[in-house]
Structure formats: structure tokens, C-alpha cells
Design the sequence.
């Protein structure tokens, strides 16, 4: 019904506009359109509006029922968690930082590249990542990132993750630094919990999850 429109005639001529059925309307009193069959533009417009309102009300009712059902099941059972994979097109790396007043024995800057996928048929926003970075099997840094990365439905995007490490806070990483100085790769793993914004479906969290694992190339 929404596809049939009946525009008013242009100018002051005596000819009207064709309906979708091809019938010609003549201009009658009061600016309405009438044709054989009793078409009345004002009454028809009112009927269209009533039907649109009824359809909109029915749609909102269906959405409310669906959302209440999702809430009862738990969003984690309705939506799938975003997937994390190492982006093979870019090399994760660790850059050694020399001693400073703040870091007497130095530190490191780590950059990871995560290919994040959305397996759901609706778009999401990746809002938060909370977790733990481990180097050579040793806890190296606690991460808590507020994010705002849009994830298209059934799509994926590459997200760079920058992490600062202070060797002074974690003496056990001195061995990592020594190994890095020899140019050997440094093994890493990242696990944690991710939060998403699903619009009307809410803001579920997923995890803890094993997110990324690989080797860091050492740079200076």
C-alpha cells in the first residue's frame, strides 16, 4: 500500500495524474481527486496513515517480544563473541626502551595486530578489552582499553593494540630483555574479556578468552 502515491496536479490545468493502474483522475471540488469508482484523496490518505500506524505498532510489538525473549535467554546465548586472530599481513613487534628516570632498567613497547571478526548478522561496536599480556610465559602487562571500533555484520577489521611494559615493575622480564638483545623472537600470548555494544540488544561481555598468540619481532 505504501508504494501507491497520488500527487496533486501541477499548475491550474484540467488534467490530473495517472494512478498506478493507469486510470485518469479529474479535479473535483475542494482540490480532491475523484474518478469512477469513488476515489477520494482525503479519505484515501487517512486510510493509508491508519494502515501505516497499525503496521508500525505491530512491528514494535514484535520487536518488544523478541527483545524480551533475548533478555530471558541471556545475550551471551543470542550473540556470538567477536573472534580474534593474528593479522598475518603485519608483524607484531617489541621495541626495547632504554633506561630513564621513570624506568631505571628500561622497558618495552609492544604492538600487536588483531584481526577482529563479527560472526553475527547484526553490526556491533567493540567497546572494551580487558586482559593480560604474557611474554615467554611470564605476566608482562595488564591491559584495560576503552575502544570504539565498529564491526560490520559478518565482517572483520584489523585493530592495532599498543602495550607499554616497565621492566622495573616486573623483574622476571629481565630474561625477556636479555633474549631480545640477541635478536631472538619473543613468544607472546594475550587473553581477556571483550565487551560490545549491540544497540537495542544491549552491551554483553564475553570471556575470558584466549585472544592472540604468536612471536614478536624485536626492534630497537
Sequence:
Amino acid at each position: 500500500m505504501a508504494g501507491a502515491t497520488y500527487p496533486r496536479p501541477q499548475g491550474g490545468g484540467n488534467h490530473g495524474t495517472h494512478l498506478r493502474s493507469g486510470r485518469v483522475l479529474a479535479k473535483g471540488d475542494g482540490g480532491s481527486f475523484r474518478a469512477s469508482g469513488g476515489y477520494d484523496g482525503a479519505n484515501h490518505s487517512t486510510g493509508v496513515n491508519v494502515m501505516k500506524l497499525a503496521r508500525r505498532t505491530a512491528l514494535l510489538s514484535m520487536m518488544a517480544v523478541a527483545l524480551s525473549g533475548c533478555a530471558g535467554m541471556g545475550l551471551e546465548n543470542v550473540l556470538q563473541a567477536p573472534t580474534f586472530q593474528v593479522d598475518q599481513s603485519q608483524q607484531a613487534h617489541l621495541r626495547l626502551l632504554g633506561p630513564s628516570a621513570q624506568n631505571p632498567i628500561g622497558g618495552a613497547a609492544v604492538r600487536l595486530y588483531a584481526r577482529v571478526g563479527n560472526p553475527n548478522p547484526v553490526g556491533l561496536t567493540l567497546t572494551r578489552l580487558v586482559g593480560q599480556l604474557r611474554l615467554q610465559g611470564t605476566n608482562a602487562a595488564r591491559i584495560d582499553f576503552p575502544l570504539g571500533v565498529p564491526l560490520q555484520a559478518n565482517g572483520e577489521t584489523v585493530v592495532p593494540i599498543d602495550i607499554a611494559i616497565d621492566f622495573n615493575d616486573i623483574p622476571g622480564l629481565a630474561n625477556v630483555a636479555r633474549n631480545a638483545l640477541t635478536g631472538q623472537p619473543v613468544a607472546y600470548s594475550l587473553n581477556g574479556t571483550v565487551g560490545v555494544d549491540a544497540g537495542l540488544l544491549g552491551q554483553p561481555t564475553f570471556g575470558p578468552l584466549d585472544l592472540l598468540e604468536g612471536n614478536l619481532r624485536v626492534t630497537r
Observations:
- The chain has two domains: 15-73, 77-219.
- Helices lie at 41-73, 75-78, 174-181.
- Confidence is low (pLDDT under 50) at residues 1-9, 11-39.
- The CA atoms of residues 11 and 62 lie 44 Å apart.
